[in-house]
Amino acid sequence: MITFEQVGVQYADASAPALSGVELTVPEGELCLLVGPSGSGKSTLLGTVCGLVPHFTGGTLTGRVTVAGRDTRTHRPRDLADVVGTVGQDPAAHFVTDTVEEELAYGMESMGLAPAVMRRRVEETLDLLGLAELRGRALSSLSGGQRQRVAIGSVLTVHPKVLVLDEPTSALDPGAAEEVLAVLQRLVHDLGTTVLLSEHRLERVVQYADRVLLLPGPGEPPVLGDPAALMARSPVRPPVVDLGLLAGWTPLPLTVRDARRRAAPLRAQLPPPAPQSAPAPAEPVATASRLVVSRGRVPALRGVELALVPGQITALMGRNGAGKSTLLGTLVGLHAPDSGTVRVNGLVPHRSRPKDLIRSVGLVPQDPRDLLYAETVAEECAAADRDADAEPGTCRALLAALLPDVADDRHPRDLSEGQRLTLALAVVLTARPPVLLLDEPTRGLDYAAKARLVTVLRALAADGHAVLLATHDVELAAELAHRTAVLAEGEIVADGPTPEVVLASPTFAPQTAKILPPYLTVPEVAAALDAEPPR
Amino acid sequence: MSVHRLLRAAPAPADSTLPHARSAAAHSRALARQLHPGAWWLWSLGLAAAASRTTNPLLLLLILAVAGYVVAARRGDAPWSRSYAAFLRLGLLVLAARMVFAVLLGSPVGGTHVLFTLPQVPLPAWAQGVRLGGSVTLEGVLFALYEGLRLAVLLACVGAANALASPSRLLRSLPGALYEAGVAAVVAMTFAPNLVADVRRLRAARRLRGRSDRGVRAVLSVGLPVLEGALERSVALAAAMDTRGFGRTAAVPRRLVRTAGALTLAGLLAVCSATYGLLTPGAHPWALPVLLAGAGAAAAGLVLGGRRTVRTRYRPDPWALPEWLTAASGTLVAAVLIWYAGRWPGALAPSVVPPTAPSLPLLPALAALVGLLPAFVTPEPPRSTR
What we know:
The structure holds 2 protein chains of 2 kinds. Chain A is of the alpha/beta class. Chain A is built from 22 helices and 19 strands. In chain A, α4 packs across α5 (115-128). Chain B has 3 domains: 34-173 and 318-377, no CATH class; 177-247, no CATH class; 250-315. Chain B is mainly α. Classes of the chains: A alpha/beta, B mainly alpha. At the A-B interface, α3, β6, α4, α5 and α14 of A face α1, α9 and α11 of B.
């Protein structure tokens, strides 16, 4: 269906090629998962299939990519639109019209399909993706998972042979991600669509893949093959694979179910986990009580009670739109409460001067770019020192400790996601706030960057910071958080030690907990077995 | 592509019997459906044209009430349906500004009924003719009130059209040759709200850096990041539209494309010059024929140009009896008021010097009430499930 012949891509301003020597064929009707660390060329490879590389992005394409017999060199993206459907990371950037039904029809209108055909296909697609209830809704009123499904539906109506998806679930909560993946499964099974998909959160998708396309990193050619065989040598692995490697299972199990069936002997061998040393009880440094906050007419928080203790990392979980970001925003005074009280380090956030507030609480927003204004890393650090009235060089020293190899003259927008997050973290930490809030910090991070973040946050907590992170990443919460709170419809529905909360809920349980309860993470299992965790 | 052509040329036999039966049922008033956006815009422009002919506050308020009633009865539950209130507030703001200026700067109409006197600021000789402060007359205030009210009602009429049919739906009904321009306009319209949201988010982020989020400087300092974000979003949208087949064209002879372009351009030029001729005082017997010829040429150009596009329309809005009635009611209101204003100008523009109590002329009032027709003859808009 898709063939690559000696494909290489070189962007004009890059020193090394983004892709080189790709020589493979993706067969028809398979779900092919792209696996690789950040910067290994996953997005570029996806771009060559839909023709956006090089027609839209520039750069030089060598070799030849053919999709359903069409050469992407001579066909522009619009000429490939009837065979390749493309959905990017942000579905909102994909929408052209303003209601669900019109959006589904848009692609077909561009193709010039007959009205009767369009009508029929819109109905079929509404049913296939479970969107029938939403047909008349405005796109701006949909939730994240619904938007992603509409975006997939909008390219499906033209009946493409190939579907290209760039991180379709990374912005979604676990439930919505499952919704989207179930739809993809159905497409592969019922329609025989070839799906090419990249995703950082492998634990969500690897079990659905028929093939894995491994991009090991710069310099090494990509390999296409059996998922189990390739995951064993992949530099990025989901926990279930790590566990399989640790236990020496062959063939490697890729699903929780397979692993669970193999795990009985290991389960018998494992001692009950050592009780976690709870941090010494201390006075909370930030509290919210009976907090009610509205965003516009919508009540976002209804009577939230929360206390953050120094040295404790708290994970805040819940659906998209459950009120997580609003709670973080209220703690830094971005939203004024309708009723109830918030105190952070003795201050009332929305009544405090920003200058005083940053010494008490720091927030790294969902998109760290919102926090970065300067042209270079060095300027950004100097500005952070001035904002916080800190000794010149404080921020730069912090950054060097968190991330040793960032050049002073890089533009913040040119950094990788992980580097940018670390820079924003350093900027926030310059004012030495005792309370640190992070909104969805692992979005777009690969496993290596995530591991670095975990180390950094643990060190900060050990240093006496109270850390609160809002996240959809159950693996991160299990690994890092002492305590987990779950928000639903603006109310806290569960709050307690992480093992208790995540073991009680199948949605928020990490993979290891489903295989070897009550262990939550692979490193814990490795420690219990006195073995090195696989690297 | 060839397959799609075939599909278009020969629709599936099962469908061929449907359209007839469907059209009869689809236009029934009992069936909830969206009215053609063109009908709503014609209706509201009719009301606006009527409002522009009068300064009679009673008539203006009547028109405002008519528009408000129809909006309340027939708007959907989409986000843009709430824009009527926004336009009403804008109208009030305009009215208030007009009054404040009239009080501060005085009014062009003289008057003898002095209400109160503000201290007058002496101005230098070069500002002769401008007055700041001074006596405020009843006549001046009334004049400003009527004028401001008229503007506010005009705005409310536009707001009614916005609430009843979003402008992007209207643009969807453009002929094929103008489609791409229409999409550009739609994208530009979504650009503005996104930009506002970005400015808000980034201003809030300034607080996180310990800087003030108030004042002009806060807005200016986020300018560059906001523009960068907007640019990135536009590029992403352009890429998405390209991969979805935007801009696919049919192969047509070059000559046809050129002819279509020339016809459109010549037609529009003719229309412009003819309009100029019609609007300037003096007799221009050539204007009307040129106008008609120009409109014809432009239409022909658009039809020819439309052949290049392969686009089809999904569920085009039908134009049936409710659309005719809606458009006609708006036009009738405008026609009666324009005719009446020509015959009896005094009734539609109550005198302010000397101030008299305005009376409600019967015929225009009845005509304005005809504008209520759409609230009864159009189908209900479908409610989206929540």
